């Protein structure tokens, strides 16, 4: 089965910083793949790279970027413009500022359909109303005539999702869609996304720093650190048997009721995320890793642990057990 | 929103009244008006007669309210010099000044909007630097000097345009260009900074993510938002241009309200001076109200205030 | 976080900005010429020599090495008048800015600091001032009282305070609303302390930018007023007046208006470059 989206060896340099240094990931049809990591690890940049929305002054290279079986890595701006909004769509973190304050919700939604499919206005309006209802907005007709500033943050994010779905895209990229929202609204939005995926079969690449979100919606997870994917696996596997020291550190930071006792110190990873200059070799985590060895300064091997579990580390799988023994 | 405008209107009326009062006081504060009107060679009797005829012997506050009362009815009295009702004088000259102002604004917009957009889109490039240079030159150029230079080049040496009078539309070209020069720097700057801000905002990123064409993003999403402050400033600029048209009208002998004011000032024709200052102030106030209205129309966020 | 600590780093950056260098250079030269005019001029700018009228400047034929820039319609040396004109323009610029600055900053700070009814009154004053056509009022006053240098400075100073007030008001109210100021207030600090230690240093650079803009405007306005005959009186060599006196001859000898006009242009350009450099250093654009 060909993956819906396949990114191989993505490298992005912004100015003098190597933001992404060789990340690979894939999203299959109808599945949610979460890209998780702390701020500055390159996950948002990776998402923007797929869409071709990098800021000025960025350089992107990939050995392969395939969408629905087609190589799009060498697409020019015109061709990407045709793809964007049509077959692949993206929603962003800040619903408060992501909509144009001067135009109504309706006009912003219908313009996508009219641009890509040439749909006449009346039909586009119907579709917009239908989608607003689908994302759980009541009185969609009235909402279409409203302006963004008249809607709350949660409503705006729903509008963003509906707008992204106007042309029935195959891939939806969501960059931290719930980070700026209240906790209760977060849950609603995530539930909405999961439901839409089931109904529409859209593939979702979801960027987040919140492991709770990952646990909730992800089918597969890729953990990013300092511009590289250090571990990727199906969600259950990652939570049950994380291999990379960084992944383990991340998971230990989240207190799980039952496992953690009152009075236990919260887990943390000492040190800070480094800024990588081009020319850096080896593992970016080694200064913070308790298991680091001299080998970590060389090229790190990519290990396939079976069952779609991949690892980028010098440690052999099962090192935990060996160490305990 | 209705109450917002009602309040603005009330403030505007108050401002107008204040301007009226200040103008009145200004002309009265300079010593005896009768002496100024009579001239240096007048006798004491002449001065006394003048004082009586023009009602300058009455208490100040009576003179004030009399003038105020008549002014709100549109009666500004008679000109000392022109032997005509002041309101007539102004009514015949205002169209010229308004035409000049509108021509100037039109030229200014035609030049500054594209320049501002271009320099924002190509921020940092040589185009941007060139536009900055144009703005600097425009700001530093004395308008009357530019007027004279244009007269020499286009009027005399090339003979393309007339250098004075108000015969045809050609008479408004050079004055319009000079007037535009005063507005182009600020309008260009504002357009540029507004576009830069708009283009770096999140909703532009969303528009790109939707796969809209570059032109559509630039114009429909970028400029539409950047235009909001530009439009309201343009209205205010028109107000300034009308107020500052004295110099240009005088240089080009355009018989507008500014030229009228200039003639009246040099002849101490106070009723005219008072009336012109008031009319120009009212125009400015009206234009700022218009600017607020345009702002509310263009920016949906202001409508539910 | 007073404005003082920030200046050393900014100062160095300023020197690298070519606009600042050129602008400061121009203004500096004009200032020096203005101050040392009596010692620098080759001739007395007021001496009339009717036998040597309209001698062309050195780059044209018929010129005379005694008058590098030629003579005007009354035989007075152009270069000398130009230098004395710099004195007038600089005086106007600086004194007007001081006057209007004092008025405008006081009003603006009061309005921004106290808010409420005080602020309403300040906004009303600003709106009223903006509604009055300044040029006309300046002309009218000059016509009534007779022209003089001091009168021009006074009138312009009393008219050009609006931008000072607007900027002072907005920056003051921004700072007043900052958290650390509110904290200081809560801890019992006096209003005066907040004003002098927090507000004024932080609005200083913004006001410096406005000062350059207003200086440029004052110089241009005085030139326009003098051009119309109601600014600085003859025989003072205001550049605007020089242009006006010369315009009868401009069709035959264009250089008579080109030279003083160019001087005006260069000085105002210099002041504006200075202001732009300051604004770039600030990183904000507060002018309209």
Determine the fraction of residues in helical runs of chain A and give it as a percent range: 25-40%
Shape of chain A: globular
Residue ranges of chain C: pLDDT <50 for 5 or more in a row? 1-7
- End-to-end CA span of chain C: 28 Å
Q: Biggest chain pair contact, residues each?
A: B-C, 51 and 45 residues
Please report the number of helical segments of chain C.
11
Structural class of chain A: alpha/beta
The low-confidence runs of chain A, each spanning 5 or more residues with pLDDT under 50, are none
Q: How many β-strand stretches of chain C?
A: 0
Q: How large, in whole angstroms, is the Cα Rg of chain C?
A: 22 Å
What is the H/E order of chain A?
EEEHEEEHEHHHHEHEHEEHHEEH
Total DSSP E strands of chain A:
13
Kindly state the mean pLDDT of chain C as a whole number?
84
User: Helix coverage percent of residues of chain C?
Assistant: over 70%
Helix count, DSSP H or I runs of 4 or more residues of chain A: 11
> Overall mean pLDDT score of chain A?
87
How far apart lie the N and C ends of chain A?
Answer: 41 Å
Topology record:
The complex is a heterotrimer of chains A (325), B (305) and C (288).
Chain A lengths: L4 E10 L2 E11 L4 E5 L6 H9 L6 E4 L2 E4 L2 E2 L5 H7 L4 E4 L13 H13 L3 H14 L5 H5 L8 H12 L6 E5 L7 H18 L2 E6 L2 H7 L2 E6 L2 E7 H6 L4 H9 L48 E3 L5 E3 L6 H6 L1
Parallel strand pairs in A: 3-9, 3-10, 7-8, 8-9
Antiparallel strand pairs in A: 1-2, 1-4, 1-5, 5-6, 10-11, 11-13, 12-13
Helix pairs in contact in A: 3-4, 3-6, 4-6, 6-7
Chain B lengths: L1 H27 L4 H6 L5 H10 L6 H13 L13 H36 L4 H15 L2 H15 L15 H27 L2 H8 L4 H30 L1 H7 L5 H10 L3 H29 L1 H4 L2
Chain C lengths: L2 H14 L1 H23 L37 H37 L1 H16 L2 H12 L3 H11 L2 H15 L2 H8 L4 H37 L11 H8 L8 H28 L6
Helix pairs in contact in C: 2-3, 2-11, 3-4, 3-6, 3-7, 3-9, 5-6, 7-9, 9-10, 9-11, 10-11
Structure in words:
The complex is a heterotrimer of chains A (325), B (305) and C (288). Chain A has eleven helices and 13 strands. Chain A has 325 residues and is an alpha/beta fold. In chain A, the strands form two sheets. Chain A has an eight-stranded mixed sheet, with helices on both faces. In chain A, strands 1, 2, 4, 5 and 6 form a five-stranded antiparallel sheet that branches. In chain A, a hairpin with a 2-residue loop joins strand 1 (5-14) and strand 2 (17-27). In chain A, helix 3 packs parallel to helix 6, helix 4 (121-134) packs across helix 6 (153-164) and helix 6 packs parallel to helix 7. Chain A starts with a strand and ends with a helix. Chain B has helices spanning 2-28, 33-38, 44-53, 60-72, 86-121, 126-140, 143-157, 173-199, 202-209, 214-243, 245-251, 257-266, 270-298, 300-303. The longest helix of chain B is centred in the middle third of the chain and has 36 residues, at 86-121. Chain B is globular and about 85 Å long. The N and C termini of chain B lie close together (6 Å). Chain C is 73% helix and 0% strand. Chain C has eleven helices and no strands. In chain C, helix 3 packs antiparallel against helix 9 (191-227), helix 5 (134-145) runs antiparallel to helix 6 and helix 9 packs parallel to helix 10. Chain C is elongated and about 75 Å long. The two termini of chain C are 28 Å apart. Chains B and C meet through helix 1, helix 6, helix 7, helix 8 and helix 10 of B and helix 4, helix 5, helix 9 and helix 11 of C.
């Amino acid at each position: 089965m060909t993956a819906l989206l396949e990114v191989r060896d993505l490298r992005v340099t912004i100015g003098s910083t190597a933001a992404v240094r060789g990340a690979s990931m894939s999203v299959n049809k109808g599945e949610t793949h979460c890209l998780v990591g702390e701020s500055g690890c390159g996950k948002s940049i990776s998402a923007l790279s797929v869409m071709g929305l990098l800021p000025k002054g960025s350089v992107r290279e990939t050995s392969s970027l395939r969408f629905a079986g087609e190589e799009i890595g060498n697409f020019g701006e015109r061709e990407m413009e045709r793809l964007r909004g049509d077959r692949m769509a993206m929603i962003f973190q800040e619903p408060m500022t992501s909509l144009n304050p001067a135009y109504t919700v309706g006009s912003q939604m219908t313009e996508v359909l009219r641009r890509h499919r040439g749909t006449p206005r009346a039909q586009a309006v119907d579709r917009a109303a239908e989608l607003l209802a689908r994302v759980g907005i009541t009185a969609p007709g009235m909402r279409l005539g409203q302006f963004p500033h008249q809607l709350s943050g949660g409503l705006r994010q729903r509008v963003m999702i509906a707008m992204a779905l106007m042309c029935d895209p195959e891939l939806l990229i969501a960059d931290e869609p719930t980070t700026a929202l209240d906790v209760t609204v977060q849950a609603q939005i995530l539930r909405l996304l999961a439901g839409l995926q089931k109904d529409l079969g859209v593939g979702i690449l979801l960027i987040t720093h919140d492991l709770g979100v990952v646990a909730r919606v992800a089918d597969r997870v890729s953990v990013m650190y300092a511009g590289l994917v250090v571990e990727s696996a199906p969600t259950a596997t990652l939570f049950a048997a994380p291999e990379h020291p960084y992944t383990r550190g991340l998971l230990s930071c989240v207190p799980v009721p039952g496992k953690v006792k009152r009075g236990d110190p919260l887990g943390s990873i000492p040190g800070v995320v480094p800024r990588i200059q081009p020319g850096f070799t080896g593992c970016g985590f080694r200064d913070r890793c308790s298991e680091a060895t001299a080998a970590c300064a060389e090229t790190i091997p990519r290990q396939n642990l079976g069952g779609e579990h991949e690892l980028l580390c010098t440690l052999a799988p099962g090192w935990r057990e060996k160490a305990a023994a | 929103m209705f109450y917002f405008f009602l309040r603005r209107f009330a403030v505007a009326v108050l401002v107008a009244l204040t301007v009226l009062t200040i103008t009145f006081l200004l002309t009265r504060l300079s010593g005896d008006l009768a002496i100024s009107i009579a001239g240096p060679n007048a006798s004491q009797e002449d001065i006394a007669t003048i004082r009586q005829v023009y009602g300058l012997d009455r208490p100040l506050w009576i003179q004030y309210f009399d003038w105020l009362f008549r002014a709100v009815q549109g009666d500004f009295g008679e000109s000392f010099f022109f032997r005509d009702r002041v309101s007539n004088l102004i009514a015949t000259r205002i169209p010229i000044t308004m035409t000049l102002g509108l021509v100037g604004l039109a030229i200014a917009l035609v030049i500054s909007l594209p320049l501002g957009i271009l320099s924002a889109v190509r921020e940092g490039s040589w185009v941007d630097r060139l536009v900055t240079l144009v703005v600097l030159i425009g700001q530093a150029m004395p308008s009357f000097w530019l007027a004279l230079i244009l007269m020499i080049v286009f009027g005399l040496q090339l003979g393309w345009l007339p250098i004075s009078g108000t015969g045809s539309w050609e008479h408004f070209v050079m004055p319009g260009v000079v007037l535009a020069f005063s507005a182009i720097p600020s309008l260009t700057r504002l357009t540029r900074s507004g576009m830069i801000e708009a283009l770096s905002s999140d909703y532009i990123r969303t528009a790109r993510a939707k796969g809209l064409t570059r032109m559509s993003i630039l114009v429909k999403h970028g400029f539409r938002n950047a235009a909001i402050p530009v439009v309201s400033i343009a209205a205010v600029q028109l107000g300034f241009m009308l107020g500052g048209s004295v110099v240009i009208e005088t240089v080009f002998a355009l018989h507008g309200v500014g030229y009228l004011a200039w003639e009246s000032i040099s002849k101490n024709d106070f009723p005219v001076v008072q009336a012109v200052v008031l009319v120009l102030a009212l125009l400015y106030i009206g234009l700022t109200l218009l600017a607020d209205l345009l702002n509310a129309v263009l920016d949906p966020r202001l409508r539910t205030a | 976080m007073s404005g003082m600590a920030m200046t050393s780093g900014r100062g160095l950056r300023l020197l690298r900005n070519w606009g600042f260098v050129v602008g400061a250079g121009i203004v500096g030269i004009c200032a020096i010429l203005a101050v040392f005019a009596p010692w620098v001029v080759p001739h007395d700018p007021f001496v009339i020599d009717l036998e040597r009228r309209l001698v062309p400047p050195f780059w044209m034929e018929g010129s005379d090495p005694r008058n590098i820039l030629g003579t005007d319609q009354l035989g007075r040396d152009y270069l000398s008048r130009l230098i004395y004109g710099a004195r007038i323009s600089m005086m106007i610029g600086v004194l007007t800015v001081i006057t209007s600055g004092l008025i405008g900053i006081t009003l603006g700070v009061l309005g921004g600091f106290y808010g409420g009814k005080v602020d309403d009154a300040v906004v009303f004053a600003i709106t009223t001032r903006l509604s009055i056509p300044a040029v006309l009022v300046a002309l009218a006053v000059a016509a009534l009282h007779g022209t003089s240098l001091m009168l021009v400075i006074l009138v312009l100073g009393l008219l050009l305070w609006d931008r000072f007030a607007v900027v002072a008001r907005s920056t003051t109210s921004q700072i007043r609303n900052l958290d650390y100021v509110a904290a200081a207030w809560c801890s019992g600090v006096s209003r005066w302390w907040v004003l002098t230690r927090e507000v004024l240093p932080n609005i200083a650079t913004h006001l410096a930018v406005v000062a350059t803009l207003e200086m440029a405007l004052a110089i241009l306005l005085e030139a326009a007023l003098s051009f119309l005959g109601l600014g600085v009186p003859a025989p003072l060599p205001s550049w605007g007046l020089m242009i006006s006196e010369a315009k009868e001859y401009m069709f035959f000898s264009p250089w008579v208006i080109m030279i003083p006009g160019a001087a005006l242009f260069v000085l105002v350009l210099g002041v504006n470059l200075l202001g732009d450099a300051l604004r770039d250093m600030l990183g904000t654009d507060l002018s309209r």
